[in-house]
Write a structure and sequence with these properties.
545 residues; alpha+beta; five-stranded mixed beta sheet; two-stranded antiparallel sheet
Length: 545
């Protein structure tokens, strides 16, 4: 074996030799492929440093080599890279291999950590979002299966199946190491691909699983779904897969989805156009514009919606040029997309839709109005709510009125104060605090008194809006009230109060926020620390160029 085919850190065979050995194992009845890696290695590597991480990897390689030398000299050990290893051994050695691996790694593990981390049973590091988090001590994950028994022949298929098994097994980790035998695999959840192709699974369950994958935000599901799209025959399954790929915003599937946007089935065309809109990117604009002229009104209306989803300003021109004979649903979606794209000439058309006979169209129009925050919009909402017969749409109007007003500046709110007070007087109790919080932007004293009154409300939602509104005042009363809210029994209110004190830039509140750094809630501590750091920037001397 040449030096180039060995791993530089451990000296074990690298990927070329691993591939050759796995190919041979697919034809040997007694061979097992065992994938071995270290659970929670990444946070350890980041906290203790790369040198310490390399020591852990080298130690694991020595454990694997020692077993091979002592008990199974004909076995194979390879190093894929990082903390990933692969072994090919005779199935008669598996139990002894696992016992040896489990015992030796736990014995060495004590030397990897400080006494404090060992006694606590975890380390403090940072997760993928950059937030402080707690991670368990490292453990071994080893999964063994027979490529021969499972009829998996290609090395990449063997690797993919092993990766799936490792991800599944980690979900069941309770403490220390996980060592999975071929028998254990039979009671683990089957790979998603097998589940979706199993004729005994009801169609609605498959569609539910697919759509859940779309909402999961796990990109590796995109690879699975893309592969499955060409394998499933049922139209409804294809429809769900296309929808899920769009929800995942899985860009690599764009070319495949584009082909479905031109297929003969209207259901699949509709979902493909929707998915391309979700993925975004001007490269799909031509395909979506073609959908806009589709003879099927559902496909065409989805084309109109997707133009708004992509957000390309040229879309306004195309949407305006639609013929008046076009389907009503297409014209409705076109108006809504123009609104989202910032078309200033759309208000009159939107107002007409908000008075349409169809309640679904009225509700969509009200939602779109939030994109045009102005006195005119608020007046329109005020007139609509008096005529609206459906409570669900009245509720939507109240929500939209608050969101619209909250985007307006102080002068616009002052001009709309009569309307906002009318919303306040005639709204259900749980809506009133939201309108008071908006009116607080005018800085009027009587509103401040109402806000401080809401701080004693049993409703957490009302207290939240009271805290929001108080941040618009910079007097002693509002600052005192916000500091007091740092002791609210709700962690959400405490966190919001810490945020609003930071927004007010009241340096003297820094000492109060310091106490919140010891709050039992992570959310409160994080928000307090951010506000303190924002305040510190105000007092930090600026460097001269």
């Amino acid at each position: 074996m040449t030096q180039g085919s060995k791993n530089a850190l451990t000296g074990l065979p690298g990927n070329e030799e691993i591939t050759r050995r796995m190919s041979k194992s697919a034809n040997k009845k007694n061979d097992l492929v065992v994938y071995v890696d270290i659970i929670d290695f990444k946070p350890y590597n980041e906290v203790y440093g790369f040198s310490a991480g390399d020591t852990v990897i080298i130690t694991l390689s020595k454990i694997l080599i020692l077993f091979m030398q002592k008990y199974a000299p004909r076995s194979f050990i390879g190093h894929i890279g990082g903390d990933d290893f692969v072994a090919v051994i005779n199935k008669k050695y598996l139990q002894k291999f696992y016992r040896f691996l489990d015992k030796e790694f736990l014995r060495f593990r004590e030397g990897f950590y400080s006494r404090a981390d060992l006694s606590r049973g975890n380390i403090v590091g940072f997760n993928r979002k950059g937030e402080k988090d707690y991670f368990p001590l490292m453990g071994i994950c080893a999964v063994a299966f027979s490529p021969y028994a499972r009829k998996i022949y290609a090395p990449d298929e063997i690797a993919a199946f092993a990766t799936y098994l490792k991800e599944t097994c980690r979900c069941f980790r309770k403490k220390d190491n996980i060592c999975v035998t071929p028998k254990d695999i039979e009671i683990l959840p089957v790979p998603v691909e097998n589940y979706l192709l199993d004729e005994n699974i009801p169609l609605y369950q498959k569609r539910t699983v697919i759509e859940a994958m779309g909402e999961s935000s796990f990109s590796h599901y995109g690879r699975i779904l893309t592969k499955m799209l060409s394998r499933v025959e049922h139209m409804l399954l294809k429809k769900s897969i296309i929808y899920a790929l769009g929800r995942l915003r899985y860009h690599p599937a764009g070319k495949l989805l584009s082909s479905y946007a031109g297929c003969s089935n209207a259901h699949l065309r509709t979902r493909a156009v929707e998915a391309l809109g979700n993925i975004g990117g001007t490269s799909y604009m031509k395909i979506i514009l073609q959908a806009l002229t589709d003879k099927n009104p559902y496909v065409a209306s989805m084309g109109a919606k997707s133009i708004g989803d992509i957000g390309h300003p040229d879309g306004i021109r195309h949407l305006k040029n639609l013929s008046s004979s076009t389907s009503k649903w297409v014209l409705t979606e076109a108006v809504l997309s123009r609104c989202r794209l910032g078309d200033k000439d759309v208000f009159s058309e939107l107002s007409e839709l908000a008075q349409d006979k169809n309640p679904l169209i009225r509700k969509k129009a009200v939602e779109a109005m939030e994109f045009i925050p102005s006195v005119r919009t608020l007046k329109k909402m005020h007139s609509l709510i008096k005529k609206e017969p459906y409570n669900s749409i009245k509720k939507k109007l109240l929500d939209s009125a608050y969101k619209t007003a909250n985007k307006m500046n102080k002068e616009e709110i002052s001009d709309s104060s009569n309307i906002l007070w009318d919303f306040y007087e005639n709204s259900p109790a749980h809506y009133r605090a939201s309108f008071i919080s908006v009116l607080a932007k005018t800085g009027k004293r009587d509103i401040l008194n109402k806000l401080t009154g809401y701080l004693g409300s049993p409703s957490e939602e009302e207290r939240f809006f009271a805290v929001e509104g108080l941040s618009n005042y910079s007097n002693k009363k509002s600052v005192f009230s916000l500091r007091k809210s740092l002791n609210d029994n709700s962690f959400g209110i405490r966190a919001h109060s810490a945020k609003m004190l930071g927004k007010m830039k009241d340096i003297e509140s820094m000492d109060y926020l310091r106490k919140s750094l010891k709050d039992p809630s992570d959310k409160v501590r994080k928000r307090a620390s951010q506000s303190i750091l924002e305040m510190a920037q105000l007092t930090c001397p600026q460097k001269k160029n």
